[in-house]
């Protein structure tokens, strides 16, 4: 659902921008931010403008396009009355950097925010700082000379750790924000989702004496035994096979209930723009490797190893099959334990275990990586202090996480977090590519020794306390809290499993939109989904894939493929 909202928002903003950008070339003159000339010979100003954490000698005000935050959860607390310009984050920025935000516009995340961005552009009132939803919008803003060059600001004011974080993506993230060798934005990073993970009821496996799965044959055997021998006690013929999504059978990085691992066994990467043999972009869903993968899935469905009603299940239905014990198998990711945490409320003896499977003959699993940058922080061209955005990012995603030691300040952030309140003017995130398993070894050592001093970030230390509490409850023979179990199982057990698995990565080369997508993509997407469902359920034979490819090309697929390659060339 989240990816669908992002896609719709992206297409909407592209359409709106095409009608508005031509009329906002002089938007800088209409900005109302109060700016004052700065004496660059003043050492205090010069230092503040060229280092990550130095405070400005006078308050620097900036306008921002803000994502709406509900502060109602803070009623009755010490933070009652906090708002978008006076909250734990804005106070932190003010105290550390001497900067203060003024909200130019505020909107809910998603389509509402996209509309506000487009209105700001069309009205010539671009805020000093805002987040834009995709690279297509970023490129349009650059081509119309509306945003500031952040190259020097990044060089001088991005902390060493921020640079290290971006470097962990091997250049894939920062390169998306680079035009004509200039850094025009700070990208929001999307950490690796890791490979697809198979989750199975280990208590059922133990009851049947089944070993852990590696190959697709192993997976088939286990699910067959679940169905035929009924270790869950559902009654003959009532246990359900592999739970599968019917809106996204595959093709979303980090997608839930998706079959990406099975497609990858055949070298198929649906819905991804990948390199073909000549180095050009090709759409994975229409490549010949798809056909044998679909034939395999049709075979699994015919054997009832895939949920026979998957095509009509809702999201709630799928989850209920798992938590109620009707099914003991599903594909997810390293955080899949959260999907089935409620199982322990219904059956405390249930045991879900994760496996990086099915694997290829060499013991590896191949995954496609997701879009490394989901959005971009931009600065209005003409704003006197473009480095403010970079300094704030360094403070939020480095200093506050890793270096802040003031217990009172940390308590305030913990209080906000416990109430699920955001509030930062920077509606983005910057984190290491391998963030979900990066420190798992340090966690394990800390949990064994009780020494958490090697955990660097404040959030890691908070997590350590939670994991230790969970292990203590298990050690004392207490029934585990489902939430505590889910947290430990995802961030320690499964993260460690993924870290030590043989994972190969395929990097898609295009994540944007093209002019024809706004009109043609909905039809092509519908055609693709119908093809999956009909072939897998046996309504059509795998040969129907060939007809789908032909129709896809004629209905706009060839045009869009041409546009994608042109966009890559122009970038």
From TrEMBL:
Gene3D superfamilies: Periplasmic binding protein-like II. Keywords: Cell membrane, Lipoprotein, Membrane, Palmitate, Signal. It holds the Pfam family SBP_bac_1. The keyword Cell membrane applies. PROSITE patterns: PROKAR_LIPOPROTEIN (PS51257). InterPro entries: Bact_solute-bd_prot1, SBP. Residues 1-22 form the signal peptide. The keyword Cell membrane applies. This is ABC transporter substrate-binding protein.
């Amino acid at each position: 659902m989240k990816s669908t909202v992002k896609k719709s928002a992206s297409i909407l903003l592209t359409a709106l921008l095409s009608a508005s950008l031509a009329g906002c070339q002089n938007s800088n003159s209409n900005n109302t931010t109060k700016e004052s000339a700065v004496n660059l010979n003043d050492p205090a100003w010069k230092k503040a403008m060229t280092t990550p954490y130095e405070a400005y000698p006078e308050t620097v005000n900036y306008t921002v396009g803000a994502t709406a935050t509900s502060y109602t959860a803070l009623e009755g607390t010490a933070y009652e009355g906090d708002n978008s310009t006076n909250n734990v984050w804005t106070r932190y920025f003010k105290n550390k950097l001497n900067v203060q935000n003024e909200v130019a516009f505020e909107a809910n995340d998603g389509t509402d925010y996209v509309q506000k961005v487009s209105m700001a552009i069309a009205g010539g009132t671009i805020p000093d700082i805002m987040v834009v939803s995709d690279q297509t919008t970023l490129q349009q803003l650059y081509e119309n000379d509306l945003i500031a060059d952040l190259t020097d600001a990044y060089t001088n004011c991005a902390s060493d750790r921020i640079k290290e974080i971006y470097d962990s993506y091997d250049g894939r993230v920062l390169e998306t924000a680079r035009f004509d060798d200039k850094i025009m934005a700070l990208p929001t990073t999307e950490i690796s989702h890791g490979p697809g993970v198979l989750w199975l009821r280990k208590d059922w496996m133990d009851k049947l004496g089944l070993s852990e799965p590696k190959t697709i044959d192993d997976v088939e055997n286990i699910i067959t035994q679940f169905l035929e021998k009924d270790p869950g006690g559902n009654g003959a013929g009532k246990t359900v096979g592999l739970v599968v999504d019917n809106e996204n059978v595959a093709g979303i990085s980090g997608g839930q209930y998706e079959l990406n691992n099975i497609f990858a066994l055949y070298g198929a990467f649906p819905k991804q723009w990948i390199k073909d043999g000549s180095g050009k972009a090709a759409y994975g869903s229409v490549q010949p490797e798809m056909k044998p993968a679909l034939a395999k899935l049709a075979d699994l469905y015919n054997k009832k190893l895939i949920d026979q009603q998957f095509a009509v299940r809702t999201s709630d239905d799928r989850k209920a099959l798992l938590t109620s014990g009707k099914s003991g198998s599903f594909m997810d990711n390293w955080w899949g334990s959260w999907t089935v945490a409620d199982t322990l409320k219904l059956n405390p003896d249930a045991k879900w275990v994760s496996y990086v499977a099915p694997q290829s003959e060499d013991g590896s699993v191949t995954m496609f990586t997701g879009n490394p940058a989901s959005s971009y922080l931009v600065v209005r061209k003409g704003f006197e202090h473009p480095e403010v955005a970079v300094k704030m990012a360094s403070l939020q995603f480095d200093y506050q996480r890793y270096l802040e030691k003031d217990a009172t300040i940390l308590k305030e952030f913990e209080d906000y977090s416990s109430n699920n309140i955001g509030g930062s003017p920077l509606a983005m995130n910057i984190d290491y590519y391998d963030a979900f398993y990066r420190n798992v070894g340090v966690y394990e050592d800390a949990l064994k020794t009780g020494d958490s001093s090697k955990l660097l970030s404040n959030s890691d230390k908070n997590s350590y306390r939670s994991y230790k509490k969970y292990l203590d409850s298990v050690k004392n023979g207490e029934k585990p809290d489902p939430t505590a179990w889910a947290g430990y199982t995802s961030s320690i057990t499964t993260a460690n499993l993924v870290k030590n698995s043989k994972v190969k990565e395929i990097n898609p080369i295009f994540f944007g939109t093209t002019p024809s997508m706004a009109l043609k993509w909905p039809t092509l997407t519908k055609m693709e989904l119908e093809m999956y469902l009909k072939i897998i359920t046996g309504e059509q034979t795998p040969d129907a894939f060939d007809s789908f490819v032909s129709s896809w090309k004629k209905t706009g697929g060839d045009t869009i493929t041409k546009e994608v390659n042109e966009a890559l060339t122009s970038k």
